[in-house]
Structures are given as structure tokens and as C-alpha cells.
Amino acid sequence: MAEDILHEVTQADYKYGFTTDIETDIIPIGLNEEVVRIISAKKNEPEWMLEYRLKAYQHWTTMTMPDWAHLNVPEIDYQSISYYAAPRTNNPKSLDEVDPELLKTFNKLGIPLEEQMALSGIAVDAVMDSVSVKTTFKETLAEKGIIFCSFSEAVEHHPDLIRKYMSSVVPVSDNFYATLNSAVFSDGSFVYIPKGVRCPMELSTYFRINAINTGQFERTLIVADEDSYVSYLEGCTAPSRDENQLHAAIVEIVVMKNAEVKYSTVQNWYPGDKNGKGGVYNFVTKRGICKGENAKLSWTQVETGSAITWKYPSCILLGDNSSAEFYSVAVTNHHQQADTGTKMIHLGRNTRSHILSKGISAGVSNNSYRGLVRVGANADNARNFSQCDSLLLGDKCGAHTFPYMEVNNETAVVEHEATTSKISEDQIFYCNQRGISTEDAVGLIVNGYAKEVLNKLPMEFAVEAQKLLQITLEGSVG
Amino acid sequence: MLEIKNLHASINGKEILKGLNLTVRAGEIHAIMGPNGAGKSTLSSVLTGNPAFEVTHGEVTFLGKDLLELAPEKRANEGIFLSFQYPVEIPGVSMVNFMRTAINEQRKYRGLAPVSATDFLRMMREKKELVEMDNKLTNRSVNEGFSGGEKKRNEIFQMAMLEPKLSILDETDSGLDIDALRIVANGVNKLKSANNASIVITHYQRLLDYIVPDFVHVLYDGRIVKSGDKTLAFELEEKGYDWIKQEVEGK
Ligand SMILES: Nc1ncnc2c1ncn2[C@@H]1O[C@H](COP(=O)(O)OP(=O)(O)O)[C@@H](O)[C@H]1O
Ligand SMILES: [Mg+2]
Known about the structure:
The structure holds two protein chains of two kinds.
Chain A: H1 2-10, E1 24-26, H2 33-42, H3 47-60, E2 85-87, H4 100-108, E3 122-128, E4 131-135, H5 138-142, E5 147-150, H6 151-157, H7 159-165, H8 176-184, E6 189-193, E7 202-208, E8 219-224, E9 229-237, E10 244-247, E11 250-255, E12 260-267, E13 279-290, E14 296-303, E15 308-311, E16 314-317, E17 323-332, E18 337-346, E19 352-361, E20 366-375, E21 383-392, E22 398-407, E23 413-422, H9 425-433, H10 438-454, H11 459-472
Parallel strand pairs in A: 3-7, 6-8, 7-9, 8-11, 9-12, 10-13, 11-13, 12-14, 13-15, 13-16, 14-17, 15-18, 16-18, 17-19, 18-20, 19-21, 20-22, 21-23
Antiparallel strand pairs in A: 1-2, 3-4, 5-6
Helix pairs in contact in A: 2-3, 3-8, 6-7, 10-11
Chain B: E1 2-11, E2 14-24, E3 29-33, H1 40-48, E4 54-62, E5 65-66, H2 72-78, E6 80-83, E7 90-94, H3 95-109, H4 117-130, H5 135-138, E8 141-142, H6 148-162, E9 166-170, H7 178-191, E10 197-201, H8 207-210, E11 215-220, E12 223-228, H9 231-239, H10 242-250
Parallel strand pairs in B: 3-10, 3-11, 6-9, 9-10
Antiparallel strand pairs in B: 1-2, 1-4, 4-5, 7-8, 11-12
Helix pairs in contact in B: 2-3, 4-6, 6-7
The structure holds adenosine-5'-diphosphate (ADP) and magnesium ion.
């Protein structure tokens, strides 16, 4: 195990940067009403879905890119992107029909799609570019009434659930990228956990960008009905390319009375090279609602990838006694930029939220925490505690904290603490003197610093995430 | 074991070591004494490869290898251990994790498989007893919230875990009360063998009541200006360093 880590550490490069050579059905670049119709037609969507998309598209044409984040986002030409790309072998009925190249790709990424080889206790929906390739353990889960399928399938087979919950948390007009997503979204996952059911496996979606000059616009919708529980994990990677690629996703989560959802992300999109060339622009809207009493939502994110990250997994605490957590580790190295945080909107009584953000910056990167805590007038006894820590490796990187508090109820208690620290040369040398190399020392210190968040991840992924942190910070000290 | 010839070293362009010579053979204990600012800690930093210092001249061989060519972690894995004068705190890194990583790096360097969990825990227990270290300290992050004395004891604990061939104790005695001093010295003595050696840097003769040196050297203004047996330490204790100063400058 230590061997593995060392091996990975010595090959400093992004190790998911390969491309899969597969025939791809890709539509010409550009965005207009016709393109929206083409996407809808490719997916055989019902009329209501097309209308939804067109409405979103019309609205999007009136919007402009947000510029309030502490990010330097280059001009993006939305007409130079292709909005749909799919591996040619679509709609396989069984695993035998899935293109072996695709299976190989996901194997290489450590996500075997053969159920007998899968990590025990984890069901996967594998998405390449605009389509879902395969969802494992679908039948096993169906026995409990759990729906776990691609979003496209859900539109076809569960239209009532989709119509009821889609955009109920993130409205179509929410923001520039969310509206764009609503117009052109391709695939993603849908999860429904019925009343009283505890999902027996981890559910996870693995997003892979493969095709060139494309954007990925996936959508995920999770509905946990009363008294249910599910833990869900999202992972993502992309090839190393000199061109920037756009990824604008939406995740919506609905948590009913007494239900609990844990959503974890290990975001490892291609970050660009050491000089800031290439990399994914990750502009994502993630939001959940604790709709009923005692509902519980927890976001855990480990953000190591992407050239630019703009992402604020949030929670609306509507139900009385509901609670939400946000645990985040965001690492930026070289020229990466991240502006990430959360919004906790307390509306119900006795609602609680806990924010723990750990930023790690190295190189010439910029890392910002941006968090809003809002307490509505009726949210008696609302409680929030926020802890935002920044760790700096080197003196050319930036760490910033932007906390916002809007408290409209006197009984609320909102607390915020922030710290900034640095890995010192003395600490590194101390480790060196005990036989530990600088890379390993940084890994030890960073993982120690991020431990509280990493411990929130499902076990199998915590180990992966630890290695990832170390690899991301390769060569950042000394 | 260790051969230092005409060593010159500087920090930020300021020369601190000005032609230092020293030979240490296996089985020996060398005490280095000298006034504040003489360059004692600089010597330990240079021997262990602290990148803040620049070696401008001279050579150092350790067990036949050119020590100055080796990265700090390689020197450590070759068997050089420094008990720091000012051990740093490393928040978030547990002592257990830190020690296991260090042990396994050393084992890997020597072509051995990682230590098993049971062996590791047994080692931890034994060495903790050796330096009478409290369990609660090894459950914490490295040196975090340790008192000055606890930090020093932790250095000796790590030394016991890593079983170095050459240990350099940089003022390990300062800040220790007499009981702690006895425990630390006891630890050092128990680890002593015909195959390893120690360089004990100290201000005070009292440590040398417990760790009896084979040689005592006086480091003054970047050079070893006087060497002798343990009686030299008593002489220094009695007369201070002024006579050394006069001797050196009189020459
Ligand atoms: N980081 C540093 N920058 C500049 N001068 C230093 C630094 N560290 C030590 N020195 C100087 O080097 C000299 C020797 O210091 P040191 O080796 O620590 O002495 P000792 O351990 O014998 O008391 C002193 O004059 C001290 O001021
Ligand atoms: Mg000193």
C-alpha cells in the first residue's frame, strides 16, 4: 500500500489524462434552438421535456455570466462547444453489449462495471460524455423499490417523479450555468428511495469526459422519501488536453421527513498543466432541501481537480428540526482557481447547520471559501457553526474567506471561526530528519489537516482521496 | 564511522562553521560544549542536511559514504538521528502515524517489508516504557501541546524507535528537571552499543554525570579548539569559557 502511494507520487502527472479511442456520435458545435431540439430528439424525449428545455434556452439567452466570484474566468465562446457527444454503442441491453473499449476505460479508472468485480456494496452509474453507459446492481436495488438509473431512463420510465421534483430545488432560472444546463443537459443519475427504505449499498455516479471540444452538462436528482436513507458518491475525471472544457452540472436533492442523505464528491477533473494550460471549467449548482421535519442532508466534497471551480453545495432547511452539514477540502495547485463554499438557508424552527471548510493552496493558485448563512424570520433557535481553515504551501498562492451572514431571528446563534496556517520548512525538515521525503511529509501534513473531512467519506474513497491530495500537491514545497 | 574534515558552512551568506574537524568511531560518545552562538546547532543542522545552511568547503564521510551528497531523508535512513534543540509541532499528524511512516521509510530504504501492526505496537510500548513516556502523548499530534520537557522526551522516544547508528543530541538536557534528565540519559545509555555512536551537545556538565563521554570537545567560533576526556568538562564547568577565549585569541 505504501508502495502504491510512492509509485503514484513519483509519477507526478494527472493519471486519468488518457483518451478512449471510440466512435463518438457528436453534434456540430454551436448553441441555438435547433441544437436543443436535436439533443431532445436524440434522447427520444417527450414533448414536455422539450418544452422545458426550450423555455430554459430562451431564458438563458437573456442572461450573462456571473462575475462576483474571486475568479479570473476567461471569455467562454458558447458557440464553439459541442453540446452532445455519445459513444456510438448506445443503449446496451446487457453488459455483453457494452463496447469493450468502454469497459476497459472504466476499469482503468478503477470502476469495474462487471457486478462480480465491483467494489463490494457499491452500485455505479457510469456516464461518458453525454450518456450513461451502464448502471450496475439496478435489479438488486429494484427489489427494495429503489430506483437508480440514468436521468434519461428516468424521464422515460418515471416521468411523474421527474416532473414533480426536477427544478423543485434549483429553479430553471436560478443562475446562468444552471439555466444553460436546463436547456442542454445530457445525462446523469436519478435516485429514488421509497418510504422507510435504507439503501443497502453506496450509490455512485462516475462522470467521465472523453470527447474533445464538448461540454458535459449532467443532472442528478436524488429523492429520499420519508424515513429513508442513502449515501451517494460522485467521482469525475477527464483527459489531459490543452483546450479548456466546460462542465456545468446540476445536482438536486430532496430529503423528506426523517430521511437522511449523504452526498460525497471526489472531484478530480483535469486541472490543466503546470503552466495553467487546459483544464476543466467546473461551474456547478448543487442544492438540497430538507423538506420535512428531522430531515438530514450532508455534503462532503474533496475538490482537487479543475482549472476553475465555481461551486456552492447548499441546503434549504425548511422542515423543523432539520439539519445540514457541509464538509469540504479544496486543494488548488499551480494555476488552479477555486471559489467554493456553501449556503445554509434556515427557514424551519430548531434547524442546525455545520460548515467545515479546509482550503489548501499551493503554487500560484487561488482558493476562496464563500459561504452564506441565512436565518429566516421564523427559524426560531436556528444554529450554525462555521469553521474555515486555510493552509498555505508557499507564498505565491492566495487564500480568501468570504463569509456572509443574514440573521433575521433573534433566537438564532450563528458562529464563524477562521484560521490560516502554513506548512513551514522546519516541519518539513523535521520529517525529512526522520527519514520521510518531502513529498511524503507534505502528504502526511495535508492529510492530517484534512482528516476531519476525509473521515466523512465512505471508507473505500477516503483512502483514494488521501492519495489524491498528496498527488495534487506534488512538487509544491521545496 | 563519521569523519568531518575542514568543514565550512554558512547561513544567509554568514560563515558559521570555519574549518571544523572531528572523527567519531563506533562505540564512542563525544560531548560537544561551547558558548552560545558558537555553531553547535549549526553543526547538527549541517550533518543532517538542513537546506537552510550552505556547506562552502570541506568533506564529511559517514560509514564510507559522502554524507554531503545525500538528501536529508537518506541521511536519516542511513542511520543519523538528530534530537532537535527545538522540536517543531506538526498539528494533525498523529504520533502513531508519524512513527509508523518513519519506521517504514527506513525499512524500505533497507529493503525490508513494512512493519506488522503487532510488531509496531509492541515496539511503541517497549520504547515508551524506556523513556517513561505517557500514553496520552503518543495519542496526540506530533509535539502538539507538549511541554518543553515532553518534547525532549519525545525526541529520545523517537530515537529509541529508530535505533540510529549515530545520534546527535542537541541540548536535549536543557529544560529538563533532574528526574527527566535521569530518564533521558538512562534511555540513551540503554541504547548504547559497540555499533553505534553519539554526539552529545550540551551547555552543562551535569548531563555528563549521566552520559559519560569518551571525548569532550570545545566548539568555539566555528571550530573545535580543544579536545580532551571527561575531565575537560569539569574544567569548563569550573572556569567558564573565558579562558578558552583567551587561549584561542592569544594564539
Ligand atoms: N537562521 C539563521 N539566520 C542567521 N543567523 C543564524 C541563523 N541560525 C543561526 N544563526 C547564527 O549562527 C551562529 C551559530 O548559531 P548556533 O549554531 O545555533 O549556535 P549554538 O547552537 O552553538 O548556540 C549564531 O551567531 C547565530 O546567530
Ligand atoms: Mg544550539
